[in-house]
Model the fold of this input.
Amino acid sequence: MTVRVRLAPSPTGTLHLGTARTALFNWLFAKKEGGTFLLRIEDTDIERSKEEFKKNIFDGLQWLGINWDESPTIQSERINEHKQIIKTLIEKGFAYKCYASEDELDEMRETQKRNGLAPRYDNRHRNLTPQKESEFINAGREPVIRFKISDQKLISWNDLIRGEMTWSGKDLGGDMVIARRAPADSIGDPLYNLVVVADDSAMQISHVIRGEDHLANTAKQILLYEALDLNIPVFAHTPLILNSEGKKLSKRDGVTSISEFKKMGYTSEAMANYMTLLGWSVPEGVNERFNISDITEIFSFKKVNKASAKFDWDKLNWLNSQVIHEMSAEALLKKLDPLFKENNWSLPNQEWGTNLVNLIGPSMVLINDGVDQAKPFFEEPELSHDGKDQLEIKESKMILNFILKKLENLDAEIFTKDQALDLINQATKNCKVKKGLVMKSLRAALFGTLKGPDLIQSWVLLSRFSKDRSRIRRFI
Ligand code: GLU
Done:
C-alpha cells in the first residue's frame, strides 16, 4: 500500500504541542514507509481561522524539521465538493433535513437529563412526511442536515496503536449533523466529520494518525465512508498528553505552543526528540537522546503506548541541555548571537565569542540561559548580597588595590590566563591572605556575586574591554 498520511490542523490557534506530536508521528511513519506526508488546513471556521495562526503552524513545523510534501490542501476551497457529497447522501437516503429548533433540542436534552439519560438527538425528524416538512418550511424554519446513525450498528476497526476497537452506533449521540442550518432549498456549511471524510478520501489518505480524542469521530467517519462507498483508511490514535496532575494538557498549564517553547530557549532538536518520547518508547539499546531523522527506520506504532503520556519538564530540560552540550561553540554562538544583538551587545571578535560560549555552555539548560550568563560580561552587574558581604571584609580593599596597580601595567588586549593566575598568587603572598579570599574578592568586584563559571577564564574575557579595571576601581 502506498502510504499517504496527513496533518489537519485548524488555524484557529498557534501550533499546539499535541498537534506537533501528531505531526511527528505522521512524519516518522511516512519516512519509515517511504510514504508521503501531507498538510491540510482545516479553515472552515472562518471567524476563528487566522492567517497569522496558519503561519505560526507552518513555521513551527519547519522549525521542528517536519517538512511536508506537495502543497497544502486548503479545506475552505473545497466547499462545493463537500456540499455535493451531502447532496449525494440525501439522494441516497443516508441523510435528511432536520427542522427541530434549538429550543426544542434544548428541551429534549433537559428531559433526557431529568430521566437520567445521556443527552442525544432522538432522531425525531428522521422520517418526516412531506406534508410535515412543508409545514416547517412554510413556518420559516431552517433545517440542519443529519446523517443517519443506526443504534444497532457496530463499528469496528483495527487501530494501529489501540488494537481491535468496537463502537456501538447507540453511543454516538443519535443522527449526526453534517451541515449547519440554512434555508431548506440550500445546503448549509458542511461540518467536521463530513469534510474530513471527503478530504481524506480526495487526498487518498491511507492512514489517519491523530489524537485519541477523535475516537468517537472515527466511528462516525467510518459510517460515512461506508455510506459513500469509499475506501476506509487505517486508523492510529495517539495517546493524550497530560500535565503533571494527570489532566489533559491545556492552555492553563502555561506553555503549550511550540512557538512559546522556542521563545523560552528550547531547541528544535530537543523539542522534536522529547515529543517523540511522549508516547513512543525507544527500543532496547537505543539512546533516548536522538535526532528525529535518525530514528525513521526504527519508529513503529508497536512501541507507541496506549496509556496517556505525562509531560515531564525535567526530561525535556535534560534533553535540551544534552543538545546544547553536543553543539560546537561556533554553532551555539550562532544561536546566541541574535539574542546578544537584541540586547545591543556586540562581540569584540569571533574568538572572544567562542571562548565565552565555551565558558558558559556547560551550565546552560536553555538557550536563553546563555543570555543571562553572558550579561555580566557586557553590562556592569549589580552587587548581590554575597558579593557585598565579601567586599566588606577588610582585606578585600587591599587585595583589589594590589591587583589594580599591577593591572595598570599590563596590556588589557593581551591579558592571559597565566598572567591572571600570577596576579592572584602575587596578591595572596603580598597581602598575606588565603588564595580563596583573593579569588572571592576579585569575583565579587568583577561580577557582583560569588557564583559563576571559572574565574580565571571569566576575568580574561572581561579584561578584553578593560572592564576588569573599571569594575575593581568601584570598590577601592
Ligand atoms: N482539525 C482537526 C483537529 O485539529 C483534525 C483532526 C483530524 O486529524 O481529523 O483536531
